[in-house]
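Exercise 4. Each item below gives a protein and its sequence. For each, produce the structure-token representation.

Item: Cytosolic fatty-acid binding proteins domain-containing protein (Cirrhinus molitorella).
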Amino acid sequence: MPADYNGYWKMISNENFEEYLKALDVNVAIRKIATLLKPDKDIIQDGNHFIIKTLSTFRNYNMDFVVGEEFEEDLSGVDDRKCMTTITWDGDKLICVQKGEIEGRGWTHWIEGDELHLELRAAGTVSKQVFKKSYTPAD
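Answer:
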């Protein structure tokens, strides 16, 4: 059984995010705002079905997907692109591949203890974020 990602997660670190946004060709004003934010993640997992809500005071972004099924992802509010996205399991890690205009785009999520790790990749640039579990739905 894969890891249980259910819960509300609060960001505790964000490394190299502005460089990642530059790799996505996000304009400088949005980059400056985005690097100041500390978004939360609200994750609902039912087997292989996930709803991941990234919540901030500036913009919210929702992903609703089934692991292993390709879907068109609308990245309006991120970098205003669309891509074909597939998310798969690698052990307990979620691996995302986003096919579109930006080469090598995707991310990896994994859990270590009460921390959710996110590695974002685009055009050879890597950003790492860490979130601490705030509560689970049963709390």
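Check: The helical segments are 17-23, 28-36.
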